[in-house]
Amino acid sequence: MSLRSLRPAVLALSAAAALGACASGPTASHAALADGATAQVAILETTDVHSNILSYDYYKQKADPSLGYERVATLIRQARSEFPNSFLFDSGDTIQGTVLADFQAKVQRVRCDEELGIYKAFDAMGYDGGTAGNHEFNYGLGFLSQVSGTPMNVDGGTTQKCKGPNYPLVLSNVYSTRDDQPIFKPWTIVTKTITVTGADGKPQSVSLRVGIIGFTPPPIMAWDKQNLEGKVKVTGVMEAAQRYLPELEAQHPDLVVGILHGGLNAAPYTPDMENGGWHLAGLDGIDVLLLGHSHTEFPGPRYKDLPDTDATRGFVRGKPAVMGGFYGKDLGVIDLQLVRKDGRWTIDPTTTHSEVRPICKTKTDCVAADPAIAPLVAQAHEAAQAYVNTPIGKSEVRFTSYFTDQGNSSALAVVNAAQRDYVLRELPRLHPELADVPVLTAAAPFRTGFGGPDDYTDVPAGTLTLRSAADLYFFPNTLTAVKVDGAGVKTWLEKSAERYQRIDPSKAGAQPLINPRYEGYNVDQLQGGIAYVVDVTKPVGQRITALTYQGKPITPTQPFIVVTNNYRASGGGNFPGLDGKNVVLAAPDGSREILAAWLKDKGTVTAKDIEPTSWRFAPVKAAGPLTFACPPGKLDVAKAEKLPPIRELSNDGNGSAQCAIDLSGK
Asked: Which stretches of the chain drop beneath a pLDDT of 70?
């Protein structure tokens, strides 16, 4: 049964329609509201805040005005002043992502009667609802159950009602294996009194009933396998919508808002699709779509070529939609223009639009922090700062992610050394039959400037602290090792090499070196006796040459163990051959904790403790410059690492620059 057939009395919203219908039937509060009445309602959205409550960088230990929920709170107050009728929702990835979050989850866990810091901040702004993102599951179901105030009938969950946020969390596609029931309410209805303009031009107060339904990315079962396997099961977002939208529509809401922790992908739908927003937008049962997960903005240029999408005004398949940035950098705003027609509210697509409002118009022009937020987490903030400054060792090496794409592997080499050492010790004990299989190790840079000019790892030589380990390993992954063959190693590296654009050496003009659509955290660099060459003049899938292990060519059938993390081993990044089936070691320890323990055991890390960069570019005699975005004033790092010649072309004055690299081999 199509969802359209579930609401035959409601006009379906479409891109071609002059007016779009909402999921509404006449209610008592609307009985006296004549056709022709109008209303302006703002849907405000945050997403992927990742517990960046304050405008503070815990890794660099300094204020960072370019991010932080305390500044988004200012935008929320401004928007509410502009739009007297408004609703505020969050699309997930809320409770994880900063040192403060880890501290409250792992070091000094919040009590049952204590509210999590990020939820305190959200409650101060009065949210109307939200959903759970994939990172909500990083700390396990017990922690999520506790801090969300949601008793869960799952292994490891809590049946005790603890302090959670003062707004409903909805999630329709994650179910307990015990009873096949959703672990959160799949949907709910939020009711507010709004002021409308009647057909006679006079103001009138009515109730607006907004239904919300939530969705998380189905791949959480792979990404957080150690926390979820056997405890919950997940369905695709479309399947969940088909299961629960009929129940929601039976309550006759005026408007249905889908809150998806996911982005937009117009590829053919599959139940395990990570970013199913484009497909959800095609359902008649959803009127407005809130997006997330992709750490980008919608409307925005990234989606300008997506079919049936208006990436300027913010419509996906005729439905108003927004994705409001990440890390507390932006607020998503949908300006809904409602018109009363045939006894129900409809959306006027000609005057409705979406936008993403940044906290900083330029690097030096940021809104002030809302003073109500910082005091809510002051004690936890101070304790987290003290915790991460605990000394764990020393280093004679500077670890940075500046110019990682150009061959600076210092920040990755230390991670690779620590995780390879762990597996060399643990694997023979657990799998003696694999003791003689060569062990390689893979690490990707987590901070390569995507989040702004300060979004780089830079751990100077000298005293190392827990903060250093958190800077080097940003996400709370667990260590995992997989068994692959030589052909699998090559395809692994070929996938990572998609980070680069294909270069035409004969082209006279400038050519960008980096593919902006390929994320830095999916660029694995392998070490452990391996060496290889990346030829950026070749097409995707044919770029890795001179692939050797201990100086000898790697054969397609040669066995290897590759150390990575649970995200990559279970399919994260869509690397060929990595789907969780070839895992030979799934460590109970977090990769960050393993790194911290290794640094502590070493006492002092020297250059001899980490491998040199294992790869190089094939020579390219390009007619024009090969350009890339770079951190300004850091060419000393490139020179110290003996990278190919790099020069700074321009500096925009806001913390970013353009560089060019010479790959001619001169």
From this structure: 1-31, 588
